[in-house]
Amino acid sequence: MENDRFRSKLSAYRDGELDGNLRDAVSAHLRNCAACREELAEFEQVDSLVKKMPELEATRYFDLEIIAAISRQKRDRLGSAPFAKRVLARFLQLADSFLELVAGDEEEADALDEFSDFPPLSMSYAYFRVIGELR
Predict the structure, then answer these.
(1) Is 104 left (phi over 0), alpha (psi -120 to 50) or beta?
(2) What pLDDT score does 43 carry?
(3) Which one of 7, 93, 103, 124 is separated from 67 by 20 to 30 angstroms, measured CA to CA?
(4) Per-residue CA distances from 59 to 62, 63, 66, 69, 71 (Å)
(5) Domain limits at 8?
(6) Cα–Cα distance between 2 and 102 in angstroms, integer?
(7) Which residue stretches of the chain have pLDDT < 50?
């Protein structure tokens, strides 16, 4: 129990963020607790490894490159899906478009309308479809 109390403070202790009394209490605990000393040593090892990592600078268009890579991955994933799944996805898109045409634009646009462009087989698409049906 006491271990948990001090274990949660080890990172702050390592970074010199603890006030005097708490810092002294953690130091005293570390003298008697091998498990916490081992965990502190792991923090120090991680800090050392991070400091050795090269500094990287994102390109000017890094965000666009990420978005394009995600789009390619989604397209490739759907393209490699079984034929039946691809046909079902297209059918659901067509049915959704047809129902929107038939139903007309009777409902007021709301904040959820901006989320209507998720791919049909995604969890986000299903989530917002369910939310829309519950309202």
Answers:
(1) left
(2) 86
(3) 93
(4) 5, 9, 11, 15, 19
(5) 2-52
(6) 66
(7) 111-112, 134-135
